[in-house]
Amino acid sequence: MPTFFGDSKPVSTVTHGAATFDLPILYYRDDAFALYFTANYEKVKAAMPSDRLNPVILPGNKAIVALCAFNYIDTSIGSYGEVAVALPAVFDKQMGAFSGLLAAIRESNYPGFGVVVMHLPVTRVEARDAGRGEWGYTKFLADMHFSISPEYMECRMLEGEAHILDLRLKRKGFYLRDKKPLTTFSVRNGDLIKTVIPQKATKRISLMPGGSSLELGDHPVAESIRSLGISARPFMSVYFPERAGILPSGQVIETGVRPLEGHLGEDRTAVHSVAYPGSS
Question: Do 259 and 187 meet the contact criterion of CB atoms below 8 Å apart?
Answer without folding.
Answer: yes
